[in-house]
Design brief:
Keywords: Cytoplasm, Iron, Metal-binding. The protein is mainly α. The protein has eight helices and no strands.
């Protein structure tokens, strides 16, 4: 028997049971940028009966009773390192590859399928934004979080509080999330047309994987790393 309720936030549900992200992905229920919404609110946004979806989540848990590794057990430094080593490393490698794919497919097939040029424009904008975003996290935010965790009191940060910088990062996450929704719509849920060549199909597969990784990436920051860092800053600020 589980303790899931429709008033649980979707971010907390996936935080405690990471494997449930598969069901959220399939239902296209946002658990990363929308992680602060309750299950009831998130389902209503997608036109899904929350009780039915809750039953699906509970059935999945009952069928996979093995304990899951819990990222919330990691220290802030360990969690920041994990995000860099897994998700940042993936983006540093995959963004240049995807840029080449979307550009090639748009160039070759753009006249037959005009949406490919829109896909190219949107993805190139995402890639440019993410490149800057990753740099800010790796060079500014994550070092600040590590410094805060290692200190007895709140260090004096040249760019203000962690909370303010995190708020900016979350706004950028929302912009990327909205762009990912556009990509899914423009690609018919990453479904290739019958006439698609192998490069076209490879592009769609890569975009789908990119979306899934970004959902996990943003979830780990918005629903685990950032709230814990803000809470620690507030606690140490009272000393």
């Amino acid at each position: 028997m589980t303790t899931l309720q429709i008033n649980n936030t979707v971010g907390a549900i996936v935080r405690d049971r990471p494997s449930l992200s598969r069901l959220f992905e399939q239902a296209q229920v946002d658990y990363c940028c929308g992680g602060k919404k309750t299950l009831a609110e998130a389902c209503a946004q997608r036109g899904i009966d929350p009780q039915v979806f809750l039953a699906q989540l509970e059935a999945y848990i009952a069928a996979t009773p093995a304990p899951e590794s819990n990222l919330s057990d990691l220290s802030l430094t360990e969690l920041a390192n994990h995000i860099e080593q897994i998700h940042h490393a993936y983006l540093h490698t995959e963004l240049p590859r995807l840029e080449k794919l979307v550009t090639k497919v748009a160039t070759v097939h753009g006249e037959k399928e005009p949406r490919l040029r829109q896909i190219q424009d949107i993805f190139l904008a995402i890639a440019a934004e993410l490149t800057t975003h990753l740099m800010k996290e790796e060079q500014v935010l994550f070092p600040m979080i590590r410094q805060l965790e290692a200190s007895d009191t709140v260090p004096v940060f040249h760019c203000g509080t962690l909370a303010n910088l995190i708020q900016q990062m979350e706004l950028e996450h929302e912009e990327t999330g909205a762009a990912l929704v556009q990509l899914r719509q423009l690609t018919d849920n990453f479904t290739p047309p019958d006439w698609a060549c192998n490069t076209y199909r490879a592009m769609l597969d890569a975009l789908h994987t990119f979306e899934q990784d970004m959902h996990q990436h943003v979830h780990k920051e918005n629903n685990l790393l950032f709230p814990q860092a803000i809470a620690l800053e507030q606690t140490k600020g009272k000393r």
